[in-house]
Every structure is written in C-alpha cells, then in structure tokens.
C-alpha cells in the first residue's frame, strides 16, 4: 500500500513535480494549480509551501499566497516580505489590531522597518484617530522613509478630504519623483477634482500631453460621476499598496533587486488592485522575462480609464516581449497618432520599427520625438537613436550628420563618441579622427568592453597591431561571450603572428555567432586569415 501511495498520480510528490515543470516552462496557471494540489496533499511541507508562496506572488494568486505564508510562518520560515503580505491582508479586512501587530513585527524584523511610521499613520486613519507620520531626522530608518513621505502625506490628506493640507505635499512629491510621474499626476488630479478642486487638478495636467487628455476633458466638463469613480480617496490598504509600489520601483533599480521588486509589486497589487500598482507590476514582469504575465496584468486596466494610455504603453512592451510584433507596432502607431502624443510614444514606436528592420520608419519616429522638445533641451539620445537607425538603414551620410550633431550637443558622452568613431572605422573612413574619438570615449569610460573593443579595433585598422592586441585582450576578458570582440581579437592576434591563439579566439567567437559571421569564423579557423575573411 505504501508503494502504491508513493506513486499515486494525485500525490503531493507528483503534484509538486508537475508544478515545478510548469513553473520552469513559464506555465503559471498550471503551476499554481499543482502547487495548490501539492499543499492539499502535504500541508506540512516547507519546501512545497515555499515554492507555492513564490509562484503565488508571481502569478497573483492571493489565497494561495496567504495559505503558503501561514504554513511558512508556523515553521518559522516566512520571508520578510511575507510580513508585508499579512499587513496588506489585515488592512484589506480593516482588522486594525492585526495590522498593528504585523507592523510591529515588521519593525522588529528590520528589513522594512523604515516603512513602519507610514503604515501606522494609515492604520490610525482607518481607526478614525489620524495622526501624521513622525520621522526622526537622524534616524537611519526614518531617513529612508522620507523618500516616500510627501506622497504618502498627500494621499492621506486627500483620503481625509483635506485639500489644503494635500496641496503642498503634492507639489513636494512631484518635485522629487523621477518615475511614473504621469500616473501620480493623474491620481492627484482625479482626487482633487472629485473634491471640487478642479482648478488645482488641471494645474497638474499640462494641456499638451496626450496622457492627460481624457482626465482633462472630464474635469473641464465636470463629469462628476466618472470623477468620483476615478478619484475615490484611497483606503488604508490602497495607501499601503501605493507605498509598496514605489518601493518595488526602487528595488528594481538596485543590483540584484529584480526578484524582490516583483514580490513587492505583487503584494502591492493585493493591497491596491488599482491602475498605478498594476502598471508597475506589468512593467516589472515584462522586464524580468515574463511578458505573458505582464500582458495579462496590463489588460486588467480598463482602456477608458485615466490610466488607459499608460497601460497601453506596458501592453505594447509585453506584446513585443511575447513575439507579437505586429500587434505591438499597430498599437504603438495608434498611440503615436494621438493629438499631442508624447515623445516617449514615438521612441517606443521607433524602437519597435528598428527591431522589425524598418529603419526608415524608425528614423522618422525618432525625428518626431525630437520635435516634441525645444531645440535647446532636446535629449542627445534621440539623435543617437535616429543616427543609429539611419546607419543601419544604409544611409550613412545622413547618419553621420546626425551623429556629429549629437556629439556637438554632448561632446563628452562615450556612447556617441563610440558609435560615431566605430561606424567610421567600419567604413575605413577618417581613421585618424575616428581613433581620436574612440580614445576619448575610452578615457571617459575605461571599463566598458564595447568601447575598449572599438578602440583596439581602430588601432588595428590604423596599422598599430602591437598596441591593438592588449586592448582587445582586455575587451575579450571583460566580455568573453561577445562574438564581435573575439573575432577582432583573433584577427589582431593573427596579424601579430600568434596563430594558435588567433584560431582559439575565432573558435570562441563562433560559439556565439550565426549566419554569415559563423561561416566566416569557421573558414578562418580552418584556413587561416585571408583578405576576404577580414572582420568588418
């Protein structure tokens, strides 16, 4: 009987194995279903509970996340972000006592202790005896909390319908935010308008931005029913969710913070299933190689909401990530065709067209993005994008003029110097001038392997093989999986008489090459260097 039970198709082991396989294949619904079955069969297994918890956070299954978290907590294995999950759950249930208990535990655990004053202020607001968060100037945790303070104070003031208290905090929050500012402006504006502060709301929404067109129209027309829906004051749970959303964005920008950012963002959507949280969740999933889930998340935001166009931007990226290029380009074109379309809409379209090898269309889109800026503040990156598209589209004379213009705007930007210099080296044009550009780029960014490679290759083309080899060796050591760098090194080593090492470098390059490049490398490794086999 024991042997039969151990191989039963519905056993914990088999359900867990199916879940892990589905997890590895990116089949989240199937993985969640089988983790749930595995927990049913073996609720005391920490290993199953741990995997179930992680998969539930990624896929957005709140019941499974809470169930797994409780099992892990009973074993003393609950991750620190599990405490945040419990805080959000208690706030959603308006169980203020439980929320306070979990917040105290969060403060004791240390990892997220700096959030405690902000969370406690939401709890007090929920209880009806609000006090603003109090931070100590010299306390390290409170210094971290200040990053989120103004936005939270503004949202709490709006939740209490205190417009006058909200306004200075709104201005301070917008002055310090560098990401997702459009979404935050929409949130503040909708809530102000719903509280009969239409003038102040419109001041937050420039009239030359497509992202704000729908909200501005509703506010100007006084569509009170929709404004009440879009601008409903946040509950304590939603306020906590917005706090975690901001923390997730910051975590994503840290080295190694990708996994934590996904978990924080998901816990945020559990507490606040609104548009702002879902937009960030969709972006992080797509950026972390799960565009299918990112697509599903972006589609949860109504297209006719104030955040609809922002959600469409994430939808475009997710469509592109799932290989639905035509759908992504069509939606990007639609966005770029809107009156007062923002520059980023044209950049997104240009990037997609370049990926589809429509370099002429890409260059046109990047020029349209440039037209959205006054000449004296136009970002140099837009010129680099246009120049790159023109160069790839075999319109080198036009590309060079654009890149030279970019270099005048940003004479100390290594990316421009490298692109302009290397493109000329590839064409064997103005070798001395190109070499000077690449030397400057390398001085500005000495540890960038692509720039180091460009410099070494330029030295090789200029005939200075002795100087080129150590530079290319340095580049290859920093980027051993780069086919171009290894091929350049092989060519230089061959010219230096180091034939065995040259073949080794070409074989290393061939490992990561395909198509014509792979054939050229194979021929060089077998036959040695010939003029027709030279790298471009």
Can you tell me about this structure?
This protein has 31 helices and no strands. The N terminus is likely disordered. It has 536 residues and is mostly helical. The longest helix has 20 residues.
Largest sheet: none
Mean pLDDT comes to: 92
Unreliable stretches: 1-9
Strand content: under 5%
Distance between the termini: 69 Å
| Number of contiguous helices | 31
Q: How many beta strands in the DSSP annotation?
A: 0
| Class per helix and strand makeup | mainly alpha
Rg for CA atoms: 28 Å
Shape: globular
Write the layout of secondary structure elements.
Layout: H1 2-6, H2 12-24, H3 28-41, H4 46-59, H5 62-74, H6 80-92, H7 96-109, H8 116-127, H9 140-159, H10 163-176, H11 181-194, H12 198-203, H13 213-221, H14 224-230, H15 236-252, H16 258-271, H17 275-287, H18 291-298, H19 308-321, H20 325-336, H21 343-355, H22 359-370, H23 380-392, H24 396-409, H25 414-426, H26 431-444, H27 449-461, H28 465-478, H29 483-495, H30 499-511, H31 515-527
Helix pairs in contact: 2-3, 3-4, 4-5, 4-16, 6-7, 6-15, 6-16, 7-8, 8-9, 8-15, 9-10, 9-15, 11-14, 15-16, 15-17, 16-17, 17-18, 17-19, 18-19, 19-20, 20-21, 21-22, 22-23, 23-24, 24-25, 25-26, 25-27, 26-27, 27-28, 27-29, 28-29, 29-30, 30-31
């Amino acid at each position: 009987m024991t042997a039969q039970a151990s191989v039963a198709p519905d056993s914990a082991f088999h359900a867990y194995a199916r879940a892990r396989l589905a997890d590895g294949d990116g089949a989240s619904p199937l993985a969640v279903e089988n983790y749930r079955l595995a927990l049913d069969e073996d609720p005391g297994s920490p290993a199953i509970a741990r995997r179930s918890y992680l998969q539930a956070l990624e896929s957005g299954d709140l019941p499974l996340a809470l169930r797994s978290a409780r099992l892990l907590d009973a074993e003393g294995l609950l991750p620190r972000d599990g405490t945040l999950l419990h805080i959000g759950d208690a706030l959603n249930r308006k169980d203020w006592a439980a929320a306070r208990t979990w917040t105290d535990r969060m403060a004791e655990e240390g990892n997220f202790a700096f959030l405690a004053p902000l969370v406690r202020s939401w709890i007090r607001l929920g209880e009806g005896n609000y006090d603003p968060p109090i931070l100590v100037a010299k306390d390290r945790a409170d210094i971290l909390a200040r990053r989120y303070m103004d936005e939270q104070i503004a949202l709490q003031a709006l939740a209490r319908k205190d417009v006058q208290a909200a306004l200075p905090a709104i201005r301070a929050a917008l002055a310090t935010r560098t990401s997702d500012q459009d979404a935050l402006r929409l949130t503040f504006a909708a809530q102000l308008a719903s509280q009969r502060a239409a003038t102040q709301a419109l001041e937050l929404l420039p009239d030359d931005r497509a992202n704000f067109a729908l909200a501005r129209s509703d506010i100007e027309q006084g569509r009170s029913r929709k404004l009440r829906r879009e601008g409903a004051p946040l509950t304590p749970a939603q306020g906590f969710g917005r706090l975690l959303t901001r923390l997730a964005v910051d975590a994503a920008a840290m080295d190694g913070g990708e996994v934590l950012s996904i978990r924080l963002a998901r816990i945020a959507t559990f507490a606040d299933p609104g548009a702002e949280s879902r937009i960030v969740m969709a972006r992080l999933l797509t950026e972390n190689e799960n565009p299918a889930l990112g697509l599903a998340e972006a589609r949860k935001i109504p297209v006719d909401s104030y955040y609809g166009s922002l959600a469409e931007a994430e939808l475009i990226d997710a469509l592109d990530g799932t290989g639905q290029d035509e759908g992504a380009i069509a939606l990007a074109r639609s966005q770029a065709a809107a009156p007062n379309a923002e520059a980023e809409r044209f950049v997104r379209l240009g990037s997609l067209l370049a990926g589809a090898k429509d370099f002429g269309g890409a260059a046109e889109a990047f020029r349209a993005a440039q037209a959205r800026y006054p000449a004296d503040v136009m970002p140099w990156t837009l010129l680099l994008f246009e120049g790159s598209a023109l160069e790839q589209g075999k319109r080198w004379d036009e590309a060079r003029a654009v890149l030279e213009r970019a270099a005048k705007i940003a004479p100390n930007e290594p990316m421009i110097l490298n692109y302009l210099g290397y493109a000329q080296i590839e064409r064997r044009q103005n070798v001395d001038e190109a070499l000077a550009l690449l030397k400057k780029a390398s001085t500005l960014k000495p540890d960038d392997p692509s720039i180091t490679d460009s410099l070494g290759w330029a030295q090789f083309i200029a005939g200075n093989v002795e100087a080129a080899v150590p530079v290319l060796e340095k580049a290859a050591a920093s980027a051993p999986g780069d086919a171009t760098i290894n091929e350049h090194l092989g060519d230089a080593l061959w010219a230096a008489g180091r034939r065995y090492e040259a073949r080794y470098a070409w074989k290393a390059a061939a490992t990561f090459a395909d198509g014509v490049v792979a054939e050229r490398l194979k021929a060089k490794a077998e036959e040695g260097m010939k003029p027709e086999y030279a790298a471009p």
